[in-house]
Each structure stands twice: as C-alpha cells, then as structure tokens.
C-alpha cells in the first residue's frame, strides 16, 4: 500500500461522515469555504528500519510497518442562541463536541473493520483541542482539532522494490517498472544488439543477437523457461579478474563453463 492509497481511504471515510459540509486537504491554495468544513493533513511518515521478508518466493517481497499522524480540523459557526424576541444573541461553540462525535465515528467498530480491510489502523491521540482563539478576528467562528495515529504496511517487491506498483505518476512512467531485463544493457565488444541485461565478458566478439541475460559470446543465448532465479546478476569482467554486481532479475540459470564467452543454459 502506498501513502496515496492510505490518504484516499482516509478521505473517503471522513467524507462519508461529513456529508453536510466540505472536506479538503489542508495547505492547498483555495477560496475561503463556507462553514462548516473540515481539513485533513498527513504529517511525516515513519518507516521501520528492518522489513519483514518473504524468503520462499520467486520475487523478493518485503513489508515495512509505517506510521503517521492525521490532523483533522473542524471549522464551524456553532449553534445559534436566540432570545425570546427571536433575535440571535450569539452562538455556542460546538466545534469540540463535534470533533468528539467524529472521533467516536472513526474508532467505531464499523469504521475500524472497514479501514482494517485496507490495511489501515486509526486511533485518537487525545485530547481534542479547542483552537477557536485562532479565529478571534471574526465573531462566532469556532475551530477544533484532533490528531489520530495512523498505521499501515508499505509493500515492496522485485529487484528495485517497486514492481508491485502499477503506476508511477511522479517519474513519468505509464506502466509497471521492469524489474530487470527490460532496461538498456551495457554494450560489450562485438556487433551484436544488446536488448536485455547483459554481462559483457571478454570472449571472442561475434555478430549474434543477444535476447536475454548473456555474455558477449558468438551465439544466441536464450533463457531457460523452467528456472526463475531472482537477485543480482554478476557481470564477469575478465580484464581485471573481478566481478561487479548488477541490479536486476535474472530469469534462467546461467552456468559458466569456460572463460571464453561460451555459456550453457
């Protein structure tokens, strides 16, 4: 679950309660709304340093426990008090009592089960604060604020940790990121076209076409459909005898036979 999905679920929950008014996210440029209305704000997200990992899966799956604080403000004119002559003598501050009823709603059995179905837990961090003194430039305008502890689980899988997300709107991507093999590989020696995650060994150059994870040998290397290894692909560098790690997902088991650019699948 992403932070955007958590915020969408929380907004829908608040909007369901406050149908008579308007619910907006705070700190947005907007016109002054007619009261009553509510504002929401998510503070900084804390994430556990060590994830829970699934070991017996094809793709490496991790789950991070995350927490944040949801701040909700209620703005209202209060309840009008009339005299015997039918004149309005003032308004009673109903903001605090209104936030108290809203907190009972957020911690009710129905809403708790509803949010739990989305992997979200919400609880009030008392007390409900009366912030009407911040509205003292106007008459009979009241404001109350409550904070709620929000807990959820952020999931990650694949070599890059983002394979479970279908859309990445912030980086211009229109689909699920490739977890390996779809990015441009490094060009090795020879005239072949490198279309996958490659390991450019120092074997004899050739004009064959590389279609998967391969070295720059003189033939076509294909992937084994039965294997599904995940992790890091080691690119052999025979110029200095060392190896370096390349992030990606290797589909197929490649077993090095000789340091001549030839591999068997």
Summarize the structure in short:
With 265 residues, the chain is an alpha+beta fold. It contains three helices and 13 strands, in the order αβββββββααββββββ.
Question: What does this molecule look like?
Answer:
By secondary structure, the chain is α+β, with helices and mostly antiparallel strands. It is built from three helices and 13 strands, in the order αβββββββααββββββ. The chain has helices at 3-17, 95-106, 109-116; strands at residues 22-25, 37-42, 46-47, 52-54, 61-76, 79-82, 88-92, 120-130, 142-157, 232-237, 242-247, 255-256, 263-264. The strands form four sheets. Strands 1, 2, 3, 4, 5, 8 and 9 form a seven-stranded mixed beta sheet that branches. Strands 6-7 form a two-stranded antiparallel sheet. The longest helix has 15 residues, at 3-17. It is elongated and about 75 Å long. The model is unreliable at 176-260 (pLDDT under 50).
